[in-house]
C-alpha cells in the first residue's frame, strides 16, 4: 500500500501544480493551506458515502440543502428557488438544457439560442439531447447582441442562454435585455455563471462595475455556478438553481419499470460519491462570507495589476476589458501566442492557448486565482521574458506539406491511417526514442505545443475536433501487464 502511494506521488510530479497560483487554467487556488486541508479531509471522510438515496445518507441531504441555500442567498434568489448540486459546470449545463427540452414535450425539434461565445458544454448538451443550437454572433466587445438574440427566437425555442462571464473573453453578457426577450415569448433563460457565480457578487460589493445577471433580473429562470472554481472547493461540484420547483421538476428522472429499486435521480449520475459535496460544504463553512470577500479582493487586485503590467508590453493587448477574473490576450504580428504559452511553461507558469475563431485571432487565456496575487510581479517578469523569446524565435510555421495534408483531409471520414500519417508528418511520433516522442511509433505528449497548436489553428473547427478526438483516442490506450 505504501508503495502505491509513493508511486502516486511520483506520477503526480509530472502534473501541473494545483497550488502556488502559477497554473492559470483548470484549477482555482485560494492560497490558503488550511482551507485546502479541510476540503481534502472532508472529501476523504465521505468518499464512501453515496448520494443516490438521500434517506440512507441524510447528512448529504442536509449539506446539499445548505450549500444550495448559501448559493441562493448569494445570487439574489427568491424564496421559491430550488437547486441541485452536480459534478461540475458541464453537468449543470446539460441538466439545464435537458430540463428546458423536457418541459416542452410538444416541440418535436427543439432549439436553444446561444451567443457564439457560450461554453462548449451547450454544444455537448445539443449533441446529447437533440436540441438544435442556434448560434448568434456577438458584438465587437465579445458580448452577446440582445437584439440579434431576440430575433433568433422562434416557436421551437425552448431555452435562451447568456454567460456571466463567457469563458474565452471574461465578459458578462447583457442579461437584462436577453432575459426580457425570452420572458416576452414565455421561454426559459439560463445564465451560465459557472465561472463568475461565486466571485461576481463579491466584485459588486467591492464597488466594481458588474452588469446585472443574477435572479434579481426578471426573466432569469435558472443559473449554474461552480463551487470548485471561485468557491475554492475540491473538484468537482457545481450548483444548478431554478427560480421555482415547477421549473426544476422536468430535471428529475424516475423509473419503476424494472424489478429492482425504483430509480430516482436529480442529476445525470445515479451513484455519486458524497466526498465532493462534503468538501464543498466544509470549505464554504470554513471561509464564510467574509473569507470569500477577502479572496475576491485579492483576485481582483491581481487582475488589475496584471492588466496594468500588460499595458507596458507593446506586443500584447487585452482582448476585451474583463468583468471578472479571466483575461484574454492577443499578440501583435511580431509575437506568436502559442510560443508565448510554451515559453511561460518553461518558466513554471501555465497559461492556456485559445485557437482563432470566426475571424478573431488566437489568444492567450489566464484564469486568475487569489493565490496568484503574491506572485504577480513574477508572472509579469516571466511574461515579458516569454514575449521577448517569442519575438526572437519568430512566428511558428507549419510545414507546407503538413498544411496541405490537413487541407485535403475530410473530418467525417478521418481514418486511423490518415491520423497516423499526420503524426508522422508533424514529427509527433518517432522510432528513435527521442525525448517528447513515443518509442517505435508510439504517441507521447510533446514537450512543447506551439507547433501542434499552430497546426490545429490551420484546421477548420470540424477538422480540429476530429484531430483531437483521434489524438485522445491514441493517448488513452490500456497499459497491459
UniProtKB/TrEMBL annotation:
Tell me which residues bear N6-(pyridoxal phosphate)lysine: 229
* Organism, as annotated: Nocardioides luteus
Keyword terms, alphabetized: Aminotransferase, Lyase, Pyridoxal phosphate, Transferase
Q: Pfam families, from UniProt?
A: Pyridoxal_deC (PF00282)
Q: What is the official name of this protein in its record? A: Aspartate aminotransferase family protein
- The answer on whether this UniProt entry bears the keyword Transferase reads yes
| GO term, biological process aspect, one | carboxylic acid metabolic process
Query: Could you tell me the superkingdom of the organism this chain comes from?
Result: Bacteria
For this protein, the record's InterPro entries field holds:
GrpII_AminoAcid_Decarb (IPR050477), PyrdxlP-dep_de-COase (IPR002129), PyrdxlP-dep_Trfase (IPR015424), PyrdxlP-dep_Trfase_major (IPR015421), PyrdxlP-dep_Trfase_small (IPR015422)
GO molecular function: any one?
transaminase activity
- PANTHER family the UniProt entry points to: PTHR42735, SPHINGOSINE-1-PHOSPHATE LYASE 1 (PTHR42735:SF6)
Q: Which cofactor does it need?
A: pyridoxal 5'-phosphate
Provide the family line. Belongs to the group II decarboxylase family. Sphingosine-1-phosphate lyase subfamily.
